[in-house]
Amino acid sequence: MYPLKFAPLYKEKIWGGRRLETKLNKELLEGKIGESWEIAAHEKGSSKIINGRLAGKTLIEAIQEEKEKILGNTAKKEYYNKFPLLIKILDANDKLSVQVHPDDNYANKHENGELGKTEMWYIIDAQEDAQLVYGVKADIDKEEFANSIKDGRLDENLIKIKVERGDVIFIPSGTVHTIEGGILLAEIQQNSDTTYRVYDWNRVGKDGNERDLHIDKALDVISFGEEAKKKVQGLEIKKEGYIRKILVACPYFITETLDIEEVYADKTNGSRFYILMALEGAAKISYESGSINLSTGETTLLPATLGRYKIEGNCKLIRSYIQKPIKLKEELEAAGYSLDDIAKIEGL
Known about the structure:
Elements: E1 4-7, E2 9-17, H1 19-22, E3 33-39, E4 41-42, E5 45-46, E6 48-49, H2 59-66, H3 68-71, E7 85-92, E8 98-100, H4 104-110, E9 119-126, E10 131-136, H5 142-150, E11 158-162, E12 168-171, E13 177-179, E14 183-190, E15 196-199, H6 215-221, E16 235-239, E17 242-249, E18 254-260, E19 263-267, E20 274-281, E21 283-287, E22 290-294, E23 299-302, E24 308-312, E25 315-321, H7 325-334, H8 339-342
Antiparallel strand pairs: 1-6, 1-23, 2-3, 3-7, 4-5, 7-14, 8-15, 9-12, 9-14, 10-11, 10-13, 16-17, 17-18, 18-25, 19-24, 20-23, 20-25, 21-22, 21-24
Pfam family, one: MPI_cupin_dom
Domain Phosphomannose isomerase type I catalytic: 5-110
Domain Mannose-6-phosphate isomerase cupin: 247-322
């Protein structure tokens, strides 16, 4: 097998902009482009491979052909028909709706078998004083939240935080959130497109009508009474030539950054695939039978049976994969990391 590269799928959004083009050199269609689906296998869009012998096939077609050669021998059976992750880059030029996502159980029951949506954001770029909505104040209950929507005072019950380049935000299902404009970010999430809008700034869509809200469903799934969440700290592991920083380890994905000064060498051992996105700089990924180049904003999937590979170049990558969080915790404990160290990883 070899590293798979994909043609991005661009999504026009009412809140989108052009920074995917100006910041990441992507060739965009006309309009307000809000999302680039980098690796996707969803009913609303499926990535096509653009390199090697699998070129022209969708990700799911390739998986059905190559099976565990891509996914790995520890992959769940359902992954063969429903790839577990959706990898995006978002250009939030304007405000997104105030929104929340359901968990797996609720989505399965109410959204025709869809997955829930837990996600994380890595801030690639942000204008000065950019901020997010990140949760509901701890003393606000369901009744008060509903009343504040009706009375037009929702804003007073929301938690807001300022963000800057390099910040990481973990958003479990049930967390009310939004981006208040001026932010370019990478999004790692469950393979779901289910969003319940709570408030949308009275905007209208292309049809001239206000966009739908989903307040009743949102009230069903919001996690009330939680303490304010913090930005992800992460566990930094310094090695010669690179720094690995483990950010999030939840049941749906593990995400970390690789800050490479010279060379990073590793291997896939047949158990799982890895997804790499270049956040800064450019990388050359060499493997047994060849190499590929990865520029800023590009994403690749390393199949489980790729074997040994080497990443060269002064670059920063975000790496995502699926592993039971308890296994990662055990590995870190065995390597001598304390529970306080491990607690810096969100989701563990």
